[in-house]
Each structure stands twice: as structure tokens, then as C-alpha cells.
Amino acid sequence: MKNKLKKLSLFLLILFIFSIVNVFGKTEIKKISIDAKINDDGSLDITEVWQANSDNGTEFYIPKQNMRDMTIENFKVSDENGPYKEMKPWDVDKTLEEKSGKFGINESGSGPELCFGKSEYNKDKTYTLTYKMTNAVQAFSDYDGFNIRFVNDKMDPASNDIFIKIYRDGTELSDKNAGIWAFGFKGSINFLGGQIIGSNSEKFFSRNNLTVLLRLDKGIINPISSGSGTFEKMREMAFEGSSYDNSKSDGLLGFLRNLKGSSPLLIVAVLFTPLVCILIFLFLFVTLISMLTSSQYRSLKKLDYKREIPQNGSLLLNHFFHLFHRKNAITGLNISYLISADFLKWMKDDAVLFEAGDENGKGRAKEDKMIFVSEPKYDCVFEEKLFKFLKDVSKDDVLDERDFNYSFRRRYSIYKNMMEAFDKEMIRTTKEMGFATGSKEKMSKIKLTDKGKKARDESLSFKNI
């Protein structure tokens, strides 16, 4: 019996080691960020930034398929050391040294492949790709628009994270003049500050893709390419089988599909810990039943979707309405959520920058750093106090993870006092703006006015999308 246990333990250990090698011993694309500017003729000026680290292979390539009448023009590549030179035609059989610092287009039977050489192994690299995609936006009889796959599935490896920004200079895009939908990944896409911003919320696997469906009202641009039929027909076809299709129900098959492409460690866990899987399933089932039977969930489900960030992006007001909606279940606001929201706001306002820290040479993991650039426009007193406090504990306007964690642990009373002041400011402000009434500064004693109920529904509609 002991020998059998030893053999089983040895087998699991070997499988674990090979899993680690499989995860960490390959090329890694950490993030792909895409910037797409819409031109008047319907073309797109695209910039892709790849953050990658490789220890094998000779090139990266991007297959461009289902191109319709679209073409790729002015393709260029650069990295931290400067621009690459074009290899024309691109030769897939060249060595690593011959492809280093080179880029080109390989014309395959299914469409062009945008290629560039891997310049160095085992080093974090940032590659910047620029090109024009002609005839991207088409003119339909009802709207202008496109349905384009910006990141392909079956990438090996797939990017861990993806980000996309779509915009039109001189025009603020919103749900009043445009429509936006995304497919192929777990994440979101929304109108933000006159632009379209999308990103993943869960790991991006090789089975995933980033496909964007965009609708523009007539008159925003003047596309030179014409699409057949109507945009609405294209939208209906795109919705079939997607998460936007109300007739679709993934159920257990959807769960099994999501397991495909997962880490070998996860597969081992599923195979050797069935009891844990059963417990997780029961937990999710009970949680789902609880949600479906709660009046709060039913009321949220009845609301329309809303893509515009409500209350002019006010964190204070949106926090209030979400807290009020859930006041029977939550008695206070999680401070980490509020701080994270302020961090995102500061990034959007270009008040701070985030970057990966340097290794200290002693084997420690890299630490992210927040760099203070300028003072933001404050939404509330809490935000102002938080920004100034973190700036004070930073060193030369650079705050690393250790300093932040240290300040949070050793000065938690300061954060707590700031939070309590925020709660009072939140209720006082909503009452002054006519959203709420009540004699005491307690959430349980507050009632919404008609104006407040409308604003609450706007905030919850944004959460719904």
C-alpha cells in the first residue's frame, strides 16, 4: 500500500513539474494593446503594442483573414531600440539572427500575415506595430459600421491580457450616435470619455478572440466601401450564439467548453479532487438560486442596459446608489474597492502612471510602481485626501507596492477615518443635490426622491451592462 502511495505521489510530482515547465518555459505575450483611429474614408490607423518575453521560435505573426475588400498599408514595426527594417518578401525559413530587427508581410492562401522577428530571448520586450487598414468601416443603407476581429483565436501563445481603444478625432462617440459590442472573450467594452474602451476581465486563452461590432450614425464619416444589406441584419447574424443572444443557454456544456485550454494543474485538480468540484458546484447552485429569488436581482434584471458612465463619472454618487440598492445586504463600503476605483480614475485623467518595477537582483518578484504626474480633478474630499496622503508617503513621487502596503497596515486608522468621513460626505452630498431625504446620516434612514430613483436606475443599468 505504501509503495502504491509513493508511486502515486511521484507521478503527481512529475506531472506538476512538467506543468510548471509548460507554463513558464514558453514564449509569453503579457499584453496586446490596440489603438484604432477611425478616418473619414472608413479606414483605420492602427497601433498595436505587444509586451512579450520569448525563449524559442524566430518570429511573431498576425494572420489577417476574412478581409473582404480591406487591405493592409504602411505596416511598420519597432521596439525599444528603434525601428525595424523591412524584409520583402518575408521568408519564414530565415534564422533567428536573420529575422532579428526585421518585419514583413507573408502572403498566405487565407490572407496576409503581419510578421516580425524575435530579437532577444528571455527578456521583456515591447514591440510597437503600426499599419493602416483600408475600407474597414462600410456604408450600409441604415448605418455605417464594421465587424472586425482584431485579435485572433488559436494564438500560440495567446496574450494574457488584451486592451482596445477606438476613437474618431473631433467626434465624441457615445450611445447617442453609435453602438458597440464585443465577442470572443470574457470582459467588457464601453463608451468612455468620447472613446470606446474594451478589455478582458478573465485570462485570455488561445480559444478566445477579440471581435468588435461597431455601428455609427450616418454623417460621422464618409466610408468609401459599401456593405450589402443593412447593418441591423449584420448585427442580428453576429448576435446568434453569442452572449447577446437571449436564446442561448450554456449550462454544463458551456462550463466544459471553458475547461478546454486551461492549465494542466487545473485539469489535475478536476481529475483528482472530485469532492471539491462537487462542493463548488453546490455552492454555485445555492448562490445562483439565492440571486434568482432575491428582489434586488429581479429589480436589476428589469433595467435597460446603459453604456454611458452615469452621474458624469462621479465615484461618490455611483457608490451611494450601489450601496443604497444593497443596503439590506451590505452595511459598509469595501475600502479597497473605492481605492481601486480612484486609481483607475487617476489613470484615466493621466494623473498617475503605473509601470512594472525592476528586480533587485536577489530573486524577488518585480513590484509595480505608481508614479504621480499631476494633480487630478477631485470628485470628493476622500479622493483629495487619499491622493495627497499617498503622494506624501511616496519617494520622489514614486509609490511602490511595499510603501503602499506598509502605509495601509501601519496607518489603517487614517484610512478608516477617511472612509468614515467619506460615508458622511456621500450622504450629505446626495441630500444637498436632491437625490435623497432623511434626518440622520445613516443609510438605513435615507429615502430616495424621484430624482434619486432615476439616478439610481442609471447607475444600476450601467452595472447591468
Q: What value does the Rg take, in angstroms?
A: 26 Å
List segments where confidence is low: pLDDT < 50 over at least 5 consecutive residues.
4-25, 248-268, 292-299, 328-333, 359-365
Mean pLDDT: 77
Q: Please summarize the sheet with the most strands.
A: 8 strands, mixed
| Number of helices, counting only DSSP H or I runs of 4 residues or more | 13
Percent helix = 25-40%
Shape summary: globular
Number of strands: 22
Oligomer: single chain
Kindly report how far apart the N and C termini lie: 55 Å
Which structural class best describes the helix and strand composition?
alpha+beta
List keywords for this structure.
single chain, 465 residues, alpha+beta, eight-stranded mixed sheet, five-stranded mixed sheet, 13 helices, 22 strands, 35% helix
Spell out the blueprint of helices and strands:
Elements: H1 2-24, E1 28-38, E2 44-53, E3 59-63, E4 72-79, E5 82-83, E6 85-86, H2 96-99, E7 102-108, E8 111-117, E9 125-133, E10 138-139, E11 144-151, E12 159-167, E13 178-183, E14 187-192, E15 195-200, E16 210-216, E17 225-226, H3 231-239, H4 251-259, H5 264-272, H6 274-293, H7 295-301, H8 315-325, H9 335-348, E18 352-356, E19 368-372, H10 381-393, E20 398-400, H11 401-410, H12 412-432, E21 436-437, E22 447-448, H13 450-464
Parallel strand pairs: 1-12, 6-7, 10-17
Antiparallel strand pairs: 1-2, 2-9, 3-8, 4-5, 4-9, 7-8, 10-11, 11-16, 12-15, 13-16, 14-15, 18-19, 19-20, 21-22
Helix pairs in contact: 8-12, 8-13, 10-12
